[in-house]
């Protein structure tokens, strides 16, 4: 009961949310610092440190002990957070830090932060020294006629033994970054000037670092060891998080995260400017931000996430331009400018929508209805007011099903691609449209207690043939619905293995534990439970594996819970009692055979599959040539391959248009899912069944 009183509940079915460290943006006009003053923890941070450690050990779903083993993981995570590419610290620094490797657990329990701040202050010193040497290196032209290469992935590389070795690492890194800018259209002088301003800006921002910034980076190294969805939010980050959850931000409608010095799109808010543009996708990288139609593009590589967010936010109706590098693009792509108009997210833009796709089979026309659900939504305010016409996913889908029935469709596809989750209540109620009453999902808390969310309504809105289309970005509530449809045998699940986000978070206001402290103390986002399907299998880590799999855009180690360090593992509990509604599994072998025979003859499908395979192979190549002639040839070959695909949305990493007119082309995977559904109808001999 204590935990229940102290926690601020969140919706059980969270989507994917990123957090950030914060610091005020430093104008380029500020003088370049010649020294960085050492930072020390504030007294209150020691108390927050102890409080967070206590909450983690008592209430986190993963019952980790705060001991030497945890200290080792925190130590490594903190070093990676500060210097992921091993480009600032020297091997001697790491040797000196080794004395902290197994004592961070003691520091946590006792509220000591000396180790964290000692390591950070050394990082600041190395950053200052390195910036001086970077400026010297950028003052000289590069020789792009030398046939040499660079290994971009340095996460497991040995630390440089001395300054000379680090100089060579940076010579190649700067040469690679200059060449990337040149491929995007700059000449060498402009590229070197951009890099000089990039790294000078980083130093200026470092000079504005506060103890709270250091504390947040360190505490997230601690919380991240428990699982990737647990995190400490500083007072400023708490404000940003709460704005995002209320969807009251006037911006572009995207959840962002900092990865390897670049701002990465984690999730698009359905109906937001970024989503509606069709030019930005999850895993895309934002490398520049410009204000208005004529403002200069500001290079934001290496910026802190809150600084980038501050640039992207602005007045409703104003224009922001983003330099975006698609996730599919190989190393060295400069990206393209995407023009967006800032706006609030409207519920109407998030709503489920329907269409009908027609196919010729055996000399007759077949019609398949498609309902696309961008998120699981409910207008809580209208519902609480007693508005009889309040909007929700389930209400809208029920209406769309009735409309599709009037148009005499043969079956329905529920498209959940890129649906990152939303309301658990809506996932349960939506399931109820297609089954009689019964359990939908099990939830096990940290104490092992299992509760069941069920559909109590015995009526069924639609009895006809059903398919569910998912991809790697279908997460949380999407996985609950897709898993339930699969377990009940109610629908054919088609697509990619889903994200695997099967955990439940809550927010703890840290000020409640330190009532004598008057200043704001931020929040702890804590994982407290896991979701399990009614068959007993967790959706965590593994996600939902479709009955029939389509080619994946990303490998499991690139996107999804399985790509996250310290993610909670998959496991299973006892299944609950439920009555199977259909026998889809019996028809899967025949559907797979029919699918393979058909797609072998489908040129659009095979082209898309080849492009996805090609993109994955490019992303695996972490060694890049620094010979300009070779790099340009590879770059042009890749552009020509991508632009040569007509009749569908292209994955062009360097399009010259502004992205505002980009439209989706044909959708081979959606069409194939509809064909699979028609196969299922044919195999079962199912008549068209009316909506009830």
Would you mind describing this structure in some detail?
It is globular and about 75 Å long. 38% of the residues lie in helices and 16% in strands. Helix 3 packs across helix 9, helix 6 runs antiparallel to helix 8 and helix 18 crosses helix 21 (668-684). Residues 637-653 have a biased composition (Basic and acidic residues). Belongs to the peptidase S41A family. It comes from Plasticicumulans lactativorans. This is Carboxyl-terminal processing protease.
Features:
6-stranded antiparallel β-sheet; 692 residues; alpha+beta; 20 strands; Pdz3 Domain
Topology:
Blueprint: H1 2-6, E1 7-8, H2 43-59, H3 68-82, H4 91-97, H5 104-110, H6 114-138, E2 149-151, H7 163-183, H8 188-207, H9 211-224, E3 231-233, H10 235-246, E4 254-259, E5 262-268, H11 273-277, E6 285-291, E7 298-299, H12 305-312, E8 319-325, E9 336-341, H13 347-350, E10 353-361, E11 364-372, H14 380-384, H15 393-406, E12 411-415, H16 424-432, E13 438-445, E14 450-455, E15 465-470, H17 477-487, E16 492-495, E17 503-509, E18 523-532, E19 548-549, H18 584-599, H19 603-620, E20 623-625, H20 628-643, H21 668-684
Parallel strand pairs: 11-12, 12-15, 15-16, 16-19
Antiparallel strand pairs: 1-17, 2-20, 3-18, 4-5, 5-6, 6-7, 6-8, 8-9, 10-11, 13-14, 13-18, 17-18
Helix pairs in contact: 2-9, 3-9, 6-7, 6-8, 7-8, 16-17, 18-21
Protein name: Carboxyl-terminal processing protease
Biased composition (Basic and acidic residues): 637-653
Organism: Plasticicumulans lactativorans
